[in-house]
Amino acid sequence: MDIMKISFLGIMTALLYALMRHIKPEIAPLVVLGGAAAVFAMLAESLLDVSGGIDEMMKLAGIEKENVSMLMKSLGICVVTQFAADICYDNSCSSMAAAVELAGRIGAIVLAMPMLKTVAGLAIGLING
Predict the structure, then answer these.
(1) Which of the two ends of the chain, N or C, has the fewest CB atoms closer than 10 A to its terminal CB?
(2) 57 and 16 co-located in one domain
(3) pLDDT tens by residue, 13-56
């Protein structure tokens, strides 16, 4: 991962977005989406390395893969919804941004429900002895 390239791409995308917002406002959000897609493509290899490292740590710690998988999916939901909400805010659509953020929060809770049920079951088992 080359942070300098990613930073430069982010700056250039922001400048192009600012320019397009005045020339052709209907295309400006697409500039941001294109820049973000390029950044994510540059990050793909690093994300695979992180995923492999997490798998190794789970094996060493003896943690079930399902629990970590749920947490990683929840983190992904949070990142994607925050990105989408930021684009909505940038385009003066705060009500849609709020709806996207709420959907992300609910999605993360729904995804974590099986783990919450397991934890609740363990707690009840400990209380009942």
Answers:
(1) C
(2) yes
(3) 999 988 998 999 889 888 988 998 898 888 887 877 777 777 77
